Amino acid sequence: MKKIEHIGIAVKDIEKSNMLFKALFGKEHYKIEDVESEGVKTSFFQCGPNKIELLQATHEESAIAKFIEKKGEGMHHIAFTVDNIEKEIERLTNEGFTMIHKQPKEGADNKLIAFLHPKSTNGVLIELCQEIKE
């Protein structure tokens, strides 16, 4: 893993949260994107070298809707940049970590993604991200 790619924050209302984070960071989000496979609408803010991803559920069965119902709004996951997501999934599996996704899938912000189950990472949901090269 190379660096923190972003921190994901689960929100109930992405428009209200965009206003809150705009006031906090002093600038607008740079991208809004629907990720149908995950049942979320995302909004990204750049804050110095770091990114914050706001996630709003687009349907009641999405992981974000279930997270908010159980825990309320707040930090959802930490994402890390990797060079080769397939090799990283294999390495982490061999190290004994439990993967939610055994194969990468397309995510937001032009990334391939895969999540590690929080039961194997001290309760923290970890996302692996690899830039999709075109």
Description:
It is a single chain. The radius of gyration is 15 Å and the shape is globular. An 8-stranded mixed sheet has the order 2-3-4-1-5-8-7-6. The longest helix has 12 residues. The relative contact order is 0.20. It is built from 3 helices and 8 strands, in the order E-H-E-E-E-H-E-H-E-E-E. Helices cover 23% and strands 39% of the residues. It starts with a strand and ends with a strand. A hairpin with a 4-residue loop joins strand 2 and strand 3. The chain has one domain: 2,3-Dihydroxybiphenyl 1,2-Dioxygenase, domain 1 (Roll), CATH 3.10.180. The protein has 134 residues and is α+β, with helices and mostly antiparallel strands.
Write a brief structural summary.
Pfam families: Glyoxalase_4. This protein has 134 residues and is an alpha+beta fold.
* CATH topology-level fold name: 2,3-Dihydroxybiphenyl 1,2-Dioxygenase, domain 1
For the record, the CATH class is Alpha Beta
Helix proportion range: 10-25%
Question: What is the H level of CATH, i.e. the homologous superfamily?
Answer: 2,3-Dihydroxybiphenyl 1,2-Dioxygenase, domain 1
Strand content: 35-45%
Net shape? globular
Record field, number of beta strands: 8
Given helix and strand content, the structural type is alpha+beta
Spatial strand order of the main sheet: 2-3-4-1-5-8-7-6
